[in-house]
From TrEMBL:
<dbReference type="InterPro" id="IPR036397">
    <property type="entry name" value="RNaseH_sf"/>
</dbReference>
<dbReference type="GO" id="GO:0044774">
    <property type="term" value="P:mitotic DNA integrity checkpoint signaling"/>
</dbReference>
<feature type="domain" description="Mos1 transposase HTH">
    <location>
        <begin position="8"/>
        <end position="57"/>
    </location>
</feature>
<dbReference type="GO" id="GO:0006313">
    <property type="term" value="P:DNA transposition"/>
</dbReference>
<dbReference type="GO" id="GO:0031297">
    <property type="term" value="P:replication fork processing"/>
</dbReference>
<dbReference type="GO" id="GO:0000014">
    <property type="term" value="F:single-stranded DNA endodeoxyribonuclease activity"/>
</dbReference>
<dbReference type="GO" id="GO:0000729">
    <property type="term" value="P:DNA double-strand break processing"/>
</dbReference>
<dbReference type="Pfam" id="PF01359">
    <property type="entry name" value="Transposase_1"/>
</dbReference>
<dbReference type="GO" id="GO:0046975">
    <property type="term" value="F:histone H3K36 methyltransferase activity"/>
</dbReference>
<dbReference type="InterPro" id="IPR052709">
    <property type="entry name" value="Transposase-MT_Hybrid"/>
</dbReference>
<dbReference type="InterPro" id="IPR001888">
    <property type="entry name" value="Transposase_1"/>
</dbReference>
<dbReference type="GO" id="GO:0003690">
    <property type="term" value="F:double-stranded DNA binding"/>
</dbReference>
<dbReference type="InterPro" id="IPR041426">
    <property type="entry name" value="Mos1_HTH"/>
</dbReference>
<dbReference type="GO" id="GO:0003697">
    <property type="term" value="F:single-stranded DNA binding"/>
</dbReference>
<dbReference type="GO" id="GO:0000793">
    <property type="term" value="C:condensed chromosome"/>
</dbReference>
<dbReference type="GO" id="GO:0015074">
    <property type="term" value="P:DNA integration"/>
</dbReference>
<dbReference type="GO" id="GO:0035861">
    <property type="term" value="C:site of double-strand break"/>
</dbReference>
Length: 347
């Protein structure tokens, strides 16, 4: 061990210097140990301090307080979180004999947030990713020249199950990718929700009778009912320069008969890349919120499902729907920046 001054504050200041230089935590620890001795700072301590610096906290002094020092608490909390990314703050507080608020503060300072696992439809191929980039670039350019988001009607469907599993979350920082898992098969009792909405709210929705599936004929009938709903609820949109229709690539949407029906109605269908729920406002916004609302619920009948959906839609203010639609350009831009990879959603 070197006899040089190796006070904690000095070592932390050196760690901050390496952080500012863009050095990795492990490399910073290695360089410090070469100068001051092999046991001056270990890699985990360096990583914890780098997390703290990334969160914007550059105070390298120990705060005077009763109980365990701040950094010691941070170390122990990180050890627990790294062992179990699903652990609750109350369990951490109980184990370390500190307050739950202290745990929250430490996790925040370390740059950690609750993030939910993301369900993805399948692994993207290289072509899928290139298509996603190309379409996102096209839509971004078009929206800059001719903003169309307030003329857009979003159409989508979702199975509403009588028994709803609550999604899992884990602790993660902004630089970490969230775990993606394949969506489980829905074998439980369920009914299909068909919904159409825009930046102002729900325009029309239908909950199909139990056991009924959506086919092209039924979908075209729904489009006629949607046209009536638009005329009643969105007269300005009905009389505008043209409705822009957002559809995904499910079978009833892509049939020749459906496309012909949409042309007869005078509605333009915008591009949407296949296998891209992260670019569909219903999936990344409306249905995500709905899943959290219904999470853990057991419903006895189709009527119970419909009542809960009615409550959910009624409780959402206009700003909720506007945020979901106006987020699209940011989603397009992020897909381009991430070379076509799936985006993760933070809850």
């Amino acid at each position: 061990m070197s006899n040089m001054d190796t006070s904690k504050e000095k070592i932390r200041s050196i760690l901050q210097f390496f952080f500012d230089q863009g050095e990795k935590a492990a490399k910073a620890a290695e360089k410090i140990n070469l100068v001051y001795g092999p046991d001056t700072v270990n890699e985990r301590v360096a990583q914890n301090w780098f997390r703290r610096f990334r969160s914007g906290n550059f105070d390298v002094k120990d705060a005077p307080r009763v109980g365990r020092p701040v950094v010691e608490n941070c170390h122990k909390i990180m050890e627990i979180v790294e062992t179990d990314r699903h652990v609750s703050t109350s369990l951490i507080a109980e184990e370390l004999k500190i307050s739950q608020k202290t745990v929250w503060n430490h996790l925040h300072n370390l740059g950690l947030k609750k993030k939910y696992h993301v369900w993805v439809p399948h692994e993207l191929t290289q072509k899928n990713m290139l298509d996603r980039i190309s379409i996102c670039e096209s839509l971004l350019n078009r929206n800059r020249i001719d903003p169309f988001l307030k003329r857009m009607v979003i159409a989508d469907e979702k199975w509403i199950t009588y028994s709803n599993v609550k999604r899992k979350w884990e602790w993660s920082n902004d630089s970490e990718l969230i775990q993606t898992v394949s969506k489980p098969g829905l074998k439980t009792r369920k009914v299909l929700l068909c919904v159409w909405w825009d930046w102002q709210g729900i325009i029309h929705y239908e909950l199909l009778p139990y056991g009924q599936i959506l086919n092209t004929d039924l979908y075209c009938q729904q489009l006629d009912r949607l046209k009536e709903a638009i005329a009643q609820k969105r007269p300005d949109l009905d009389n505008s320069s043209g409705i822009v229709f957002h559809l995904d690539y499910t079978r009833p949407h892509t049939s020749i008969v459906t496309r012909q029906k949409l042309r007869e109605l005078g509605w333009e269908v915008i591009l949407h890349p296949p296998y891209s729920p992260d670019l569909a406002p219903s999936d990344y916004h409306l249905f995500l919120s709905m899943a959290n609302y219904l999470g853990g619920e057991e419903m006895a009948s189709r009527e119970a499902c419909e009542n809960r959906l009615t409550q959910f839609f009624a409780n959402k203010e206009k700003v909720f729907y506007e945020e979901g639609v106006m987020m699209l350009p940011f989603q397009w831009q992020k897909v381009i920046e991430q070379d076509g990879e799936y985006l993760t959603q933070i809850e």
